[in-house]
Amino acid sequence: MKANARDVVIAAAHRHFDTRAFHADLARRVAIPTESQNPARTETLRSYLADEIAATIGAMGFTSRLVDGAPGKPPFLIAERIEDPARPTILSYGHGDVIRGLEPEWREGLSPWTLTEVGDRLYGRGTADNKGQHSINFAALATVLAARGKLGFNVKFLIEVGEEVGSPGLADVCRAERDALKADVFIASDGPRLHPDRPTIFLGARGVKNFDLVLELRPGAHHSGNWGGLIADPGIRLAQAIATITDVRGAIRVPEWRPPPIPDSVKRALADCEPGGGEGGPAIDADWGEPGLTPAERVFGWTSFAVLALKVGNPAQPVNAIAGRAWSRCQLRFVVGIDPDDIVPALQRHLARAGFADVRVEETGEPAMAATRLDPDTPWVRWAVASLTRTTGKKPALLPNLGGSLPNDVFADILGLPTLWIPHSYAACSQHAPNEHLLTPIAREALGIMAGLFYDLGESDVPR
């Protein structure tokens, strides 16, 4: 009987998509231009929480309130539905803000603020990041509630509208609201699947730290005919300094940036995970990154360094002169085991040892994100893998952490929760770019996945 009831709930979640009820909900949310990078959208951001989200979950019996975060920054919505304190409680999360619409750059016939279906794609700003993802989870919860008359567990939500500008105030709100956000497990959706057709669970995120390299040799530029061969070229010297950070294949040479050996449980989880973005994604370079690691271990289990921008002279209008200054914006993606507070000092020490003490490593002022990773062998992980497998008949990809970065440290470290992320997008979704879209096959399957997961949470054999 229970198995049949579960199947009925999953089928109802699929009908929610097939009848286009999901499309209607997502279209309404996409039409709200929640650009957190646009100061003119302050009231729009608040309205998305106070009106759209509060009304949606209020219909499911949630009580909610807005909580102010950092001064002058967007608020947060905290909501809960407590059925029985003796039953498990989950904390879930989503963000309603999006990056700028970039209207003129979208393909003809598309608009960032209008949900448009073309083939197997639902276009619109936020469809993938993150309105489509939390809309799937809301709808799956409602499906279980309608079928059962109750959830069988307790739910708390923390929804923000500032993620695209670094989640200002998120950590402080979680510290201040620690009791209100207390739960047994964190389950949310963001980011991409490993492959479009493979359900995915990731358990944390790589940390990220941006910094600048600056070399100032003299004021102004000097004619290369008169001074070439007589004065040092900052562009050459900065390029040489950057070249000491990795070897020729990009393997990290800064000792403090190299993580401890990858744990066996992480290696086992990654053994059947082959990275790739699907259609439109670049080919993986087999000879790039840390030698001796699989592609999955290189992106999910190790540190990577990137040069985001490099400038010397005037790139738009080069002149015959040796510049006086060179600059580069760089980034480190790192895993658990790297001290985030020592990333910049460690690089400065490395450059000094390599003979580049005159190259300054400077903070950018951008917020860094810490690295987190839940052990893949924990009971909550095994439970979630079993639920997704039962629903789809597929073994989900299990990633100890996402290759990118999310504010997961807030939930894992400040709130002390085991963290499970079940993404409903894919790597080539054009998030943060024109023509952002959600794949309809993923959305439909994800509605069933989350309905099955939430159904299973109401059963008796749930980790505590």
Average pLDDT score: 95
Tally of contiguous helical segments: 13
- The proportion of residues in beta strands is 15-25%
CATH architecture of the largest domain: 3-Layer(aba) Sandwich
Low-confidence stretches: none
What's the number of domains? 2
Distance between the termini: 25 Å
Rg over C-alpha atoms, rounded to the nearest angstrom: 24 Å
Q: How is the main sheet built?
A: 6 strands, mixed
The CATH superfamily of the largest domain is Zn peptidases
User: Strands of the largest sheet, in order across it?
Assistant: 1-2-6-3-7-18
Percent of residues in helical segments? 25-40%
Structural class: alpha+beta
The CATH topology of the largest domain is given as Aminopeptidase
CATH class identity of the largest domain: Alpha Beta
The strand count comes to 19
Overall 3D form: globular
Keywords:
464 residues; alpha+beta; Aminopeptidase; Alpha-Beta Plaits; 2 domains; six-stranded mixed beta sheet; four-stranded antiparallel beta sheet; globular
Tell me what you see in this structure.
The chain has two domains: 2-205 and 371-457, Zn peptidases (Aminopeptidase, 3-Layer(aba) Sandwich), CATH 3.40.630.10; 207-252 and 303-363, Alpha-Beta Plaits. It contains 13 helices and 19 strands. The protein has helices at residues 2-18, 21-30, 42-58, 131-148, 170-176, 224-227, 234-243, 264-270, 295-300, 343-353, 379-392, 408-414, 440-457, and strands at residues 63-67, 76-81, 89-95, 116-118, 121-123, 154-160, 185-188, 200-202, 204-205, 207-216, 222-223, 304-312, 321-322, 325-334, 360-363, 372-373, 397-399, 419-421, 437-439. Strands 1-2-6-3-7-18 form a six-stranded mixed sheet, sandwiched between helices. The chain has a four-stranded antiparallel sheet with strand order 12-14-10-15, with helices on one face. Helix 11 (379-392) crosses helix 13. The longest helix is centred in the N-terminal third of the chain and has 18 residues, at 131-148.
